[in-house]
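re: ur question from yesterday

yeah so i grabbed the chain u mentioned. its 128 aa long if i counted rite. heres the sequnce exactly as i have it in my notes:
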Amino acid sequence: MTAASGDGDTAARDETWDQLKVVGACAALEKSYFRLTKAPDPSEVRPPGVLRAALARLEGLEAADWYYLTDQLKAMRQDLVVQHIRDDLAVAVYEMHARESLKAGDPAEFNQCQSALKRLYADGARGC
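ran it thru and got these structure tokens back, copy pasting raw so excuse formatting
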């Protein structure tokens, strides 16, 4: 399964990605974001329990650099998406990223988070 075929058929590609569900097996709390160009490897995707611990670790940082925070939060968001996790954990990650985006003055990241949060709330996920 490839992420891009080069033929411009993004709808078919997106449908294929949507059907793929990965079960994470990575135990690392810290993981940098990288754009997927192929199906995700389960050994590189963190399961919900690890993502909760990673989020708690980020929330406990006193003065984290914005670039570090956004890198970590984007990687968490990607792990959530490839596992189709759309619950209170997903909301917590997106809400933290949205708040930190506002603090950093990054409207592009904020808008991405806001759009995802609207969908999560519409689907019944609860926020803080």
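noticed a couple things. Confidence is low (pLDDT under 50) at residues 1-8. also The chain is about 55% helix and 0% strand.
anyway ttyl
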